[in-house]
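TA notes. Do not distribute before section.
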Amino acid sequence: MDIKNLKLSRRHALKTVGAGIIAGAAGSTGCSSTPEKSKGPQPINGIMPWSNWSGNQVSYPTERARPRNLDALVKLLKETDGKIRAVGAGHSFSALVPTDETMLSMARFRGISHINHETKEVTAGAGTRLAALGDELWENDLGMINMPDINTQGLAGAIATSTHGTGQQFGSLSSFVTGLTLVTASGEVMKCSATENKDVFDAARCNIGSLGIITDLTLKVRDTYYLKERSEMLPIEEAFEKMEKLHLTKSRFEAYGLPHAKHMLLIEFEEVSKEESDANQSEAVSGDAYETFRTLADVIDMMPFMRDIVMNIAPRTVGIEERYGPWNKVFGNVRDMRFNEMEYTVPAEDGLACFREVLNTIKEKDIDIIFPIEYRYVDEDDIWLSQFYKRPGAAISVHNFHDKPYMTYFAEMEAIFDRYQGRPHWGKIHTKTAEEFAALYPQWEAFKAVRQRLDPNRRFINKHLDRIFPVSS
């Protein structure tokens, strides 16, 4: 394989695994099936439904608002008194957005409004999609310090849930915020930073939409750069040994554990010069990962006795693969597989032990799952409700296809994460309550005090947040 002449998507190796398994299985059966497309939620009494990306959250808002500017937003908040939930790209799997009252979109608050090249800071609208932000920064010879691999989220939603990329030297997106504008339930406009309304700033950088409406955010950025991405499939014990070393030496890497398999995929990132990146450009590899893995799932559904065999055949055929390019193109990936997800962050020093227990439990309990488990490191921060508050973390994500059962599987995984004092990603599925969060977050009461002060009538609290912030007795 001439790896210099390939430009591969980050998950090409995983897609290759799926394709290899399907090829082997199809040779035995001569057929495969594709599931029928779901029609999705339908209108009720003339009210159009809202659903998130995966389809696991649905609601019927009686009002939909899309204010055109700050004045219109302030007027809306001052002249109404019902419940309001802000909506972005719908990439949260937990029930942060659903409401049967007013759903508010910040889609008109988009784009970069100010660049300070001297301090390397940019101000962007809350509704700016991460992909668009990346493109605008690139055009101005700037780059995000780090970025998640899904780039279709809205900026405010990503900040509200401490969404993150990978790299033990890099914090979540929330940690790059140096200032923000928040409009409270009463219509008050607050400028927040480390020197202005600091308690609100400490709360608002990870706020799960419970404080008010953020209209813009100022982020620390850097000069633009290029990346090399290297993917390698390794025997599982060799992979764990290498991960121990990478944790100490590599600024960015991630891993994908394959259920019921004896191999693991490691992906490393390093910065390279423009010249090296340009010299290694080539045509992208096409392919539909969703169809590949769904067909694999269907084959295993038909022949469950073949699961462990086929899951250990294809990984051995995957070679080392490399990709080069601008930072925003290497970080960002098309997600053509819809799924539901749970993610917990455990202390970094316990990460590999927890990851190993996850993989062993899937095998020992014969959990019927083939979706890879993602493993990443993230640096600590000082944001009150961040999963990484005062604690470097190892983030472990488990998934299943959007139309497959997931709660029994996730419950098994959540029990493991609990043993390691895991903190759930706010935008992903969890069953935690206020009492449990109070034990996990040292600044829990401080956050609640700010929340109550800014929103005493609980206008930004939906049913999901009622469990997280119950009415005080």
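Switch to the second chain here.
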Amino acid sequence: MHSPKIIISGGGTGGHVFPAIAIANALKKINPNTEILFVGAEGKMEMEKVPQAGFDIIGLPIMGLHRRLTAQNLKFPFKLVASMLKARKIIKNFKPDVAVGVGGYASGPTLKAALNRKVPCLIQEQNSFAGVTNKLLGKSASTICVAYDKMDRFFPKEKIILTGNPVRQEVVKLEGKRQRAMEFFGLDPEKKTVLVVGGSLGARSINHGIEKIIHRFEQEGVQLIWQTGKLFSSQAEKAIKGKEEKGIKAMGFITKMDLGYAAADLVISRAGAIAVSELCLVKKPVILVPLPSAAEDHQTMNAMSLVSHKAAVLVKDDEIQDQLEKTVFELIKNTDKLDQLSINIAVLGMNDSADIIANEVLKLVKR
């Protein structure tokens, strides 16, 4: 069996790294002889997570531009040139059959170097609003795998394939886990439960909004699983002191996210691409609070793609203090609305995305 050589580049956040690893695993499952090399950004999380997943990675000295003027921005042109030269060397030495870009700082220089050597490229665009790098590369890429419809606003229509986003399969398989979830968190299965997730680092505005309404959870007999992120965990622990017995739990990070989803009757979440894809697959009613500082406001676009299908409820970040309490407690009591949101979001879920993308990569190898 031929041993295809694939470069996968990008990262910076879990939203880019975990899909990249899922694609790599899918490639290995289809053809165990596939040689895979990751290219990431020095100092970013992929440099740790990719080796843990069993793959080799090389780091580029690339960095992002800060929105405001800072001294760091002066380094950007030098780091970009150094990254371009290093990427060119990596492509020359590894001789990939295909280069895959998942977004993030490293994917720009790597895919540009691959295209310069006539290596076919596949882009995986996770958001409903394409990033600048992917838009530029999309003109020359062979295939563009997307998670949302109407992406021909950004890319040539004939190159687009609707695949969905690869998600961690162990996180979205919930069958038969509710009882175990209740035991894991020490909750009462007879009571309604709200899960709050602000991403792995937490979400400051959501955390402050929840802290302000803790008393309502206690009053209404609604349970809470609150992932705060490590920066807010000690403050959250003070806020819930003496309330743990009533099913109000806070933790810096949820290690078993599948059990968090399995326990939840309602989720409050940011609208990152992977979070949205997971929520569609776990079929949970959700209040989305997009991060307003996300590039090109793509989280609001992600959220609106669900809201327009009546598959989620939107609360704007700057309206949390006024709107969150009313929205949460009206919704958690309205079983019909919860059921309808669950039915509507389930329609948007796309299974086996990593396998579909891996097969598209291998089609380019054969081509």
